[in-house]
Amino acid sequence: MTLLLILLVGGIIGWLASILMRTDAQQGIFLNIVVGIVGAVIAGFIVTPLIGGAPITSGSFDILSLFASFLGAVVLLAIVNLFRRGSVR
Questions:
Q1: Which of 16, 72, 74, 83 is deepest in the core (most CB within 10 A)?
Q2: Rounded-to-integer distance, Cα 34 and Cα 23, Å
Q3: Are 62 and 29 in contact (CB under 8 A)?
Q4: Residue 10 Ramachandran class (φ > 0 left, ψ -120 to 50 alpha, else beta)
Q5: How far is CA 63 from CA 8, 23, 43, 56, 60, in A?
Q6: How does pLDDT run across 20-42, given as a tens digit for each residue?
Q7: What is d(CA 89, CA 12) in angstroms, rounded to the nearest whole number?
Q8: 3-class SS shares of the chain: helix, strand, coil, % to 5
Q9: SS3 category, 21
């Protein structure tokens, strides 16, 4: 059940991050899920030591965890855009 929740929440977080970074037209459902989950892993290493909490991949689904995972997904998309286009947006 936790894996299903991680996939669902990861997909929503990846979708919201892709809307913010204007890459939504280039991504499908599968890539949104991947971005959300990889963003949560990045959040576990970079964002959560700065703001506290835990990423969604640890099974924690509170507001701070969702926000940290969202920031991790945005950081991931910014890095991808930097290499793909030469600019963050």
A1: 72
A2: 14
A3: no
A4: alpha
A5: 16, 24, 14, 10, 9
A6: 988 877 778 888 889 988 988 88
A7: 20
A8: 80, 0, 20
A9: coil
Q: Which two tokens stand for residue 50?
A: 């700065």
CA distance 72 to 25: 20
Q: Please give the helix or strand (H or E) that residue 47 lies within, else none.
A: none
Tokens standing for residue 57: 């991949």
Q: Residues 37-65: pLDDT tens digits?
A: 898 888 888 888 888 777 777 777 788 88
Cα Rg, the chain, nearest whole Å? 12
Q: Any idea which residue has 């990889």 for tokens?
A: 38
Specify the pTM.
0.85
